[in-house]
Design a protein that fits this description.
Glyco_trans_2-like, 4-stranded mixed β-sheet, Polypeptide N-acetylgalactosaminyltransferase 3-like, globular, Nucleotide-diphossugar_trans
Length: 282
């Protein structure tokens, strides 16, 4: 019964402290970076962290918030904005509400069932400080939906879409690794982002059009925004030195308007994305 509420083991989640410690999954080269002059806090922009939640378990939501507070330099967190989407407005519109209230120079969007690890924030903000048109994503590790064990994932994966516009992870390949001289800690470009966890300059977020408010509830917004970023003078990167855990659920616990399942809403949104113009105004 508890599993059916959130599509993860709520009993186990509730028994785990919101202040639990996590292993440092970063490579040694990444750990050295955060103590280098490159990541001086005074040189980095601050950020508003925006979290949308809908019927979320309190234990996972609170662990998300506590992990941000405990593993981020206080000077870099302008605010944490929680948007309770107790409606049918959907993810994109709820995120837009949070963005409109935000005051930080950078908007960092996270899902409500994440846990940030040590040194997760500085590498993201550093890349944006160098170029405000960069949209950057952490490596997304796995938090097991039954045991809540934190599981390290392979860093060198980028996001892409198949012919049905469904998001998939693919290895970046030897040529991309060679471009970075074999380093697995260097940021690399990704065609499409997963969409749940990313940081973007607040002004650039609006310059490139923000979210499409016509997308319903959930699904496809990551594809639409990724394509628009690339066509509006920006770029998408995955930053291996930034790692955030995410609870991946095998089924969706949510209900959708009109009795439609997740597939019906997703296909409707992807159809809208497919019909959009190929070129956006710059």
């Amino acid at each position: 019964m508890l599993h059916s509420i959130n599509s993860f083991n709520l009993l186990v989640s509730d028994k785990i402290s919101v202040e639990r410690s996590l292993p440092d999954m970063r490579r040694p080269s990444c750990r050295n970076q955060t103590s280098s002059p490159l990541f001086l806090v005074s040189d980095l922009p601050d950020t508003s962290v925006i979290i949308v939640f809908h019927n979320e378990a309190w234990s996972t939501l609170l662990r998300t918030v506590h992990s941000i507070i405990n593993r981020s330099p206080r000077e870099l967190i302008k605010e944490i904005i929680l948007v309770d989407d107790a409606s049918e407005r959907g993810l994109t519109r709820a995120r837009l509400l949070g963005a409109r209230a935000a005051e930080g120079r950078v908007l960092t969007f996270l899902d409500a069932h994440c846990e940030c690890t040590k040194g997760w924030l500085e590498p993201l903000l550093y890349r944006i400080a160098q170029d405000r048109t960069r949209v950057v994503c952490p490596v997304i590790d796995i938090i097991h939906d039954e045991t809540f064990a934190y599981i390290k994932t392979f860093e060198l994966l980028w996001g892409a879409i198949n012919w049905e516009l469904h998001f998939r992870w693919y290895p970046i390949g030897h040529s991309a690794v060679a471009k970075h001289r074999g380093s697995t800690s260097e940021p690399f470009k990704t065609p499409i982002m997963a969409g749940g966890l990313f940081a973007i300059d607040r002004e650039y977020f609006y310059d490139m059009g923000a979210y499409d408010e016509q997308l319903e509830v959930w699904g496809g917004e990551n594809v639409e925004m990724s394509l628009r970023i690339w066509q509006c003078g920006g770029s998408l990167e995955i930053v291996p030195c930034s790692r955030v855990g995410h609870v991946f659920r095998r089924t969706s616990p949510y209900t959708f308007p009109g009795g439609r399942g997740v597939g019906g809403v997703l296909f409707q949104n992807l159809a809208r994305v497919a019909e959009m113009p190929v070129t956006y105004a710059r």
